[in-house]
Write a structure and sequence with these properties.
449 residues, alpha+beta, Immunoglobulin-like, 7-stranded antiparallel beta sheet, elongated, disordered N terminus
């Protein structure tokens, strides 16, 4: 092997192999420089006899810029062929052209040394990441590995959840800020004929704010005497107005003082007769019996009844109940109009009660007296022992036996309805009219006790 061959091999190794896909030849490191002939072939005599003279005015020789001559070496094989990921690798000999490689060649440093300095000597072009196949062509194209889409979906899901969490947090914070100050008006009820309250806390509930910093306007409430009337009121806090409604109501039950009452038999009694004084209420009161039928029954017989219930009611329907005592007796009348007449087999006596104004008090007692023989008398007496009521000749009442004259007296209370029915509903009330009425019916009448 000669020196040129050694140098050419050294230059190839030093410069490296460039993947000349464009078909451009490799560039040698230095151009060929002429070599002086060997010393032994030179004529030494001529050198000694004729010295070389250099003129003083000789300028330095300008060294032209050396352009490297491309050198092609088709015998060099790319040690690391890069297979195509899709298409088979073409034949090595058919290398496509690439852009020519340009090198920066500096100017000569001095007049003697004209050898350029190469800035990128030994630099190997970058080789893409690809599996080394030792120059062999793969049987099948290498397909790129598909990446799973799950990480991307998971990332998007995380972002969505994070945004949702932020939204919920903002919503909660806004809700808390809204709830931090709360003013809620109340459904206000003003008692009838009462004064209008000036306390703002009677009209609303306050949370997160001092009620003293708010104002109340009730100027629209002008009259509290009409039950059911509605008015508006206004509460202002931090320039925000809250409107509420006030209604005039009567929610207080009436009060009244009651008294017990004594009346005569069959005397008419009203619930108001048990009221002593006036009713204490904003409106008018009415009075009634809780059980009116029971009171009517009590009035037909003597006795003291302590379970009479009076109901006191106002115009709004509020009620108060009071329990009173009712005493019923014949002696309650000041005078009586006694009227008698004889009937076949017995004597009938009617006692009509009069009050202190000589008016009929609508109570009456009637007595039926029978004159009996001894056998009938003793039989009735023995059979009536322990009985408060007996019936004889279709007359029912309380019996009284008189052993002296062998008489039986049956007494019964007469209701006003009974007496009015006998008089065809036209029984008078004054003493004089009442006396004339019974005398015209065949009775003999006198006044007494």
């Amino acid at each position: 092997m000669n020196n040129n061959e050694n140098n050419e091999g050294l230059n190839s190794i030093s410069l490296g192999s460039v993947d000349n896909n464009g078909g451009q030849p490799n560039v040698p490191l230095n151009p060929e420089i002429p070599v002086n002939p060997p010393m032994d072939s030179m004529n030494m005599d001529s050198l000694d006899s004729e010295p070389i003279s250099v003129p003083n005015n000789m300028n330095p020789v300008e060294t032209p810029q050396v352009v490297p001559t491309p050198m092609v070496d088709n015998n060099i094989t790319n040690p690391n062929p890069i297979p195509d990921a899709v298409q088979p690798i073409p034949d090595v000999n058919a290398i496509p052209p690439v852009e020519p490689v340009s090198y920066d060649v500096p100017q000569p440093m001095n007049d003697i040394n004209t050898t350029p300095f190469m800035n990128e000597i030994g630099t190997v072009p970058p080789i893409p990441d690809a599996p080394i196949n030792n120059g062999s062509i793969p049987d099948e194209p290498v397909q790129p590995k598909k990446k799973s889409g799950m990480p991307k979906i998971l990332f998007v899901l995380i972002i969505v959840l994070a945004l949702a969490a932020v939204g919920v947090g903002v919503y909660i914070l806004l809700g808390m800020s809204r709830k931090s100050v709360s003013i809620v008006t109340k459904p206000v009820e003003i008692e009838v004929n009462a004064e209008v309250s000036k306390d703002i806390k009677d009209y609303a509930t306050f949370s997160g704010i001092d009620s003293n910093k708010c104002s109340l306007d009730t100027s629209a409430i002008t009259d509290t005497s009409e039950i059911g009337k509605e008015y508006s009121f206004i509460i202002t806090c931090n320039d925000v107005r809250y409107t509420g409604k006030a209604t005039i109501v009567d929610s207080v039950a009436p009060e009244a003082t009651t008294k017990d009452l004594s009346v005569g038999l069959n005397e008419n009694v009203a619930a108001s007769d048990f009221i002593d004084g006036d009713c204490e209420d904003a409106t008018e009161c009415t009075y009634l019996f809780e059980d009116e039928e029971k009171v009517k029954e009590y009035l037909t017989k003597e006795g003291k009844y302590t379970d009479i219930v009076i109901v006191i009611r106002d115009e709004a329907g509020n009620e108060t109940k009071k329990t009173v005592t009712l005493e019923v007796s014949v002696a309650s009348a000041s005078l009586y109009l006694n009227c008698q007449k004889s009937v076949n087999g017995y004597t009938e006596e009617t006692k009509l009660g009069l009050n202190n104004q000589n008016l009929f008090n609508k109570t009456g007692i009637r007595k039926y007296t029978f004159k009996l023989n001894s056998d009938t008398y003793n039989s009735l007496k023995n059979s009536s022992v322990g009985q408060s009521m007996i019936t004889y000749q279709n007359i029912t009442g309380e019996p009284t036996f008189n052993d002296t004259d062998m008489t039986l007296t049956i007494s019964k209370n007469m209701t006003y309805e009974d007496l009015s029915s006998e008089a065809n509903g036209t029984i008078p009330e004054s003493y004089a009219d009442l006396r004339n009425f019974y005398m015209n019916m065949g009775y003999s009448c006198s006044i007494g006790y």
